[in-house]
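In response to the reviewer comment on reproducibility (Comment 2.3), we provide here a single inverse folding case reported in full, input and output, so that an independent group could reproduce the run without further information from us. The structure tokens appear first.
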């Protein structure tokens, strides 16, 4: 006999997973023997309830935030081989999931911890560096993005000014006169 679906614990270490009952109603993990993918692990509330719903369910979880990887280690300890975590963008799903699965869950967006920690740059309430990367080890921060953009824009407007000046034949704004670049 399959284990009954437990009522999901709404609070996993201070993080509230959204629509926990709806997720269970759609994926029906109590069927057991399922191979499920949680593309947005976050604090792991959904993954945990999918694993807890039947003793032979397996969950592959993805998240691109290294902090999620730390939390995933706790689930790994608890559920062993039934749980696997990949620090990855779900855009890579095709490459990561190569065998058929029984269900895929996306819970798009940020976790509340992203907003709560000023260092991540998402907070509406606290000052912090304008980082805004889900994985701060990759790419550039939002601050750098805007700095680059401002530089490019001012470069573009100088180019426009030179072109206008060249068309007017006065060379104003361009010490090299009417040459185009
Ligand atoms: C709303 S939270 C998920 C909460 C999770 N369902 C739970 O129960 O705790 C969304 C998560 O998706 C992750 N995320 C956002 N965009 C992603 C992407 N392109 N690839 C992988 N993870 C992503 C975020 O880092 C965040 O942890």
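Designed residues, in position order:
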């Amino acid at each position: 006999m399959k284990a009954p679906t437990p009522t999901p614990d709404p609070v996993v270490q201070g993080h509230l997973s959204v629509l926990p009952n709806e997720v269970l109603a759609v994926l029906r993990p109590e069927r057991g023997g399922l191979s499920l993918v949680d593309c947005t692990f976050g604090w792991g509330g959904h993954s945990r309830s999918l694993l807890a719903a039947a003793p032979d369910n397996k969950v592959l979880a993805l998240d691109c935030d290294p902090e999620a990887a730390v939390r995933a280690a706790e689930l790994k300890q608890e559920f062993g081989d039934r749980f696997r975590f990949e620090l990855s963008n779900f855009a890579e799903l095709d490459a990561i999931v190569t065998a058929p699965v029984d269900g895929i869950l996306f819970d798009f967006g940020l976790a509340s911890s992203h907003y709560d920690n000023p260092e991540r740059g998402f907070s509406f309430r606290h000052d912090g560096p304008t980082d805004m990367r889900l994985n701060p080890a990759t790419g550039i921060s939002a601050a750098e993005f805007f700095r680059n953009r401002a530089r490019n824009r001012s470069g573009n407007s100088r180019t426009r000014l030179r072109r206008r000046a060249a068309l007017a034949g006065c060379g104003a704004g361009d010490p090299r006169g009417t040459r185009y670049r």
